[in-house]
Design goal:
By secondary structure, this protein is mainly beta. Helix content is about 0%, strand content about 45%. It has strands at about 5-10, 15-20, 20, 25-30, 40-45, 50-55, 60-65, 70-75, 95-100, 110, 125, 130, 165, 175-190, 200-210, 215, 225-245, 255-264.
Length: about 260
């Protein structure tokens, strides 16, 4: 796959490891511990598309859209990994692999919001989650946690119970940017369910980039709750107008949002 290149670069801009052809794609083996400021850079030579991405064995493989610009993934610093498995980015040997997705993948119905490699400073890859508030600006409550594919919701504040925390803000909103047009026909929300510490929402509104909206009724439950609707072609969605239940706890939170559909 000559159209894709990957390298690991340190804080000083020096190249530490580079990719080589491997199977149906490319791989890189990095044989030293990560240091603060290390980053992965993926170059698709200006060619956007769907790619199977695996940058760490503990995070696994994900189908992501790369927009043709440089995909830059800063390695999380050791003291800033509260939302990741303790196995992630640890040790002195690291295997990465990237492969172009088959043409049929774009039309396959799937969760378009899944991206375990998203975080605040990721560039060039989608989906990407952002929010107007995150509890105490802690990574354990960051927007990216709502699209990482982990559904454990019986606790909070550390892996594997990371979530999007709204810091008790009634105007909290979370946006998922898909980076290109996609067709969506179902939204599924999984609330954090660390009861009685947690409260819950009785309703949430999802507004799409085409200005259409759907309202999702919610109940106190640890299970995913979904709404289906007529398919619409959009580039992003925002979850907002979160109506808290009449409950003593001030801490509702979101564990996962899923958006089912396919590429437009």
């Amino acid at each position: 796959m000559e159209s894709v290149r990957l390298k690991i670069i340190n804080k000083q801009g020096q190249t530490l490891s580079i990719s080589r052809p491997s199977g149906d794609g490319i791989s890189a083996v990095h044989t030293q511990p990560y240091c603060e400021g290390d980053r992965v850079e993926v170059n698709t030579l200006g060619k956007p598309g769907l790619y199977w991405i695996s940058l760490d064995e503990a995070l696994g493989r994900a189908l992501l859209y790369l927009d043709g610009s440089a995909f830059i993934y800063p390695i999380p610093a050791p003291n800033n990994r509260s939302c990741f498995s303790p196995k992630a980015f640890s040790g002195n040997i690291h295997l990465m692999h990237i492969a172009k997705a088959d043409e049929g993948e774009s039309s396959r119905r799937r969760n378009l919001a899944f991206n375990p490699y998203d975080h605040h400073t990721t560039q060039g890859s989608f989906p990407h989650a952002t929010a107007n508030v995150e509890t105490r600006n802690e990574l354990a409550f960051a927007a990216r946690n709502a699209i990482d594919g982990i559904f454990e919701n019986a606790s909070h504040g550390e892996y594997p119970y990371q979530s999007w925390g709204i810091n008790q803000d009634p105007k909290a909103a979370l946006t998922v940017d898909f980076g290109r047009p996609v067709v969506i026909d179902e939204i599924r929300l999984t609330l954090r369910a660390d009861f009685p510490h947690d409260s819950w929402w009785e309703e949430a509104t999802v507004t799409f980039s085409d200005d259409s909206s759907v309202t999702i009724p919610l109940i106190k439950s640890e299970l995913p709750q979904s709404i289906s609707f007529d398919a619409r072609t959009v580039t992003s969605l925002t979850v907002h107008s979160l109506k808290k239940a009449d409950d003593p706890s001030p801490f509702p939170a979101l564990t996962q949002i899923e958006a089912f559909g396919h590429d437009a």
